[in-house]
Amino acid sequence: MTDRDAEFVGFTHDHRPDLVRMATLLTAGDASSAEDLVQTTLTRLYLAWPRVRRADNRLGYARATLTHVFVDETRRAHRRWERTAEGLPDRPAATGLAPEDRDAVHAALRDLAPRQRAVVVLRHWLDLDVAETARVLDCSTGTVKSQTAKALAHLRAALTPDPTTL
Questions:
Q1: Distance from CA of residue 150 to its chain's centroid?
Q2: Residues 6 or more apart from 92 whose CB is under 8 A from it?
Q3: What is the pLDDT of residues 20-52, one digit of tens each?
């Protein structure tokens, strides 16, 4: 194994779980699609490893690549997101949420437009600031702010119980 390969394997071993969790949020809980996104991301990272290894923040580079892969996949007209593993047991959640709460969050995320979902994940799960989120998504800070506001309004409405049904 070359030094390059060993370095990449070490990076993958250390950060793949983080990338899978992020991809799971981006895909609104679709674990198989999340795995596909991470695999595509890791392939791109391996091919670009000489450039990645020079980056100041390799994990940040990987997260940006994952976000770009996600946005690219959602733009493909022929791509349909389907849940083909209905009835299979869920993996243990790393979120600390009860399964029914996790399902509600994933359903609310699923209803967001892909870029809104990406903004929410980058801003509120990864805790990136507006400027860094704009850089990752290759858009203006104003776009990040407006997409965040729209996404959070939708999530609040979707996740706030209706007081008339209580």
A1: 18
A2: none
A3: 999 999 998 899 999 999 999 999 999 999 999
Contact 82, 110 (CB under 8 A): no
Secondary structure in 3-state letters for the chain: CCHHHHHHHHHHHHHHHHHHHHHHHHCCCCHHHHHHHHHHHHHHHHHCHHHHCCCCCHHHHHHHHHHHHHHHHHHCCCCCCCCCCCCCCCCCCCCCCCHHHHHHHHHHHHCCCHHHHHHHHHHHHCCCCHHHHHHHHCCCHHHHHHHHHHHHHHHHHHHCCCHHHC
pTM of the predicted protein model: 0.67
Using the structure block, give the residue that is written with the tokens 């733009």: 75
- Tokens 């799971």: give the residue: 24
State both tokens at 20.
């899978």
Rama region for 87: left / alpha / beta (φ>0; ψ in -120 to 50; rest): left
Count how many residues are written for the chain.
Answer: 166
| Gap between the terminal Cα atoms of the chain | 61
